[in-house]
Amino acid sequence: MTIPKTPGGSRAAISERFPKNVILPRTLYGFVFRASGWHQLATAILSIVLFSAGTIPLEIQRRIVNAATDSSSYRTIAFLVLIYISLALIEGTVKLVLNVYSSWIGEAAIRWLRLQVFETSQASKEESSIMTSEGVQLSIILAEAEPVGGFVGASISEPLLQIGILTAVCGYLVYLQPLMTIIVVTIFLPQSGFVPLMQESINQRVAKKISIMRHVSEDIVRTGRAIDMDGLQTSRIEEVFQINMGIYKIKFTMNFMMNLMTQMGYAGIFAMGGYFVVTGKTQIGTVAAFVSGLSKINDPWGDLVNWYRDLRVAQVKYRLIFNSAHAGNAAVG
Question: How far is the CA of 277 from the CAs of 16, 50, 174, 177, 268, in angstroms?
């Protein structure tokens, strides 16, 4: 990956470190691989290591509970606890490395994108190009580049890790008790329907907000200061307020529905698991494993939903940046 270093401020330095003919790829993932390259493979390998070992702590927990209820020797329990602590330490270390590495990739991509704005503006020979608008440039550099570039670090590793954990844990729960696994799966199926619909509604508002804020920036640059002679800026800021409140309402409603379904899942596990334990069809350790497993599924599911939100928002913002950067130019990527 070739990522330019932050220039000292001179236009000559930018030109030397950033080829004038470089333009943004057409798609968000085209930008991801242009800005991060083989680093995505390294984060993918770390993600595979993490989710591959994801079910081992659940099995250790189950054995500890069963050993305690079956009056096994404390030496056995202590040995299992040591294994559990060792696994937690290894998992935490790998996750720490992955998080720092992904953050570095994201920050490097933000730098790449911001410098691209400077280079595109410098290389543009059309004064009427959208990219020569100071207001749009300020909006991209100060506000829009960060969420788009920041997404790059988690663009591959995050879905790979979370989907891997979901698959591994669900497979383990099916192995333990197939009927109880149905409860776990049932609470997530409806979410795969309403989450994309609600996110699409958020995306439309995000695109509209960016467009309005660009107009606000352009007028400030045009007048030389933040003044509102005709009340237009006040109207725009009020509209952004209404848009943001609409986004919050949708977002928190989505979170409420997801949390409610998760609690229903716990209730189902307690009800069916309690019945199976009373009737001698399963051990208490299995029920404990399912409770812990649902928590282990709920977290990556929530992270996957958040990643999907970031993906859709980043796609909207990247498309707007791409359209601005390539106004009057031939797109490549």
Answer: 71, 32, 17, 12, 14
Helices (H), 140-190: 145-154, 157-176, 178-188
Dihedral over Cα of 81, 87, 93, 96: its sign: negative
Q: What is the mean pLDDT of the chain?
A: 77
Over 70: is that where the pLDDT of 7 sits?
no
Burial class from Cβ neighbours inside 10 Å (0-12, 13-18, 19+) for residue 177 reads: buried
Cα dihedral 143, 146, 149, 154 in deg (nearest 10): -140
Q: Is 149 exposed, middle or buried (0-12, 13-18, 19+ CB in 10 A)?
A: buried
User: Around Cβ 310, how many Cβ atoms within 10 Å?
Assistant: 17
CA 236/CA 226 separation, integer angstroms: 13
Q: Could you read off the pLDDT of 106-143 as tens digits, one per residue?
A: 888 888 877 776 766 555 544 444 444 666 666 666 66
Nearest to 80 by CA among 104, 62, 107: 62
Q: Give the 3-state secondary structure of residue 328.
A: coil
The answer to whether 140 touches 324, Cβ cutoff 8 Å, is yes
Mean pLDDT of 157-162: 90
In angstroms and rounded to an integer, the radius of gyration of the C-alpha atoms of the chain is 25
Quote the pLDDT of residue 73.
75
With tokens 């009056």, the residue in question is 71
Q: What's residue 123's pLDDT?
A: 56
Q: For the chain, give the number of residues.
A: 333
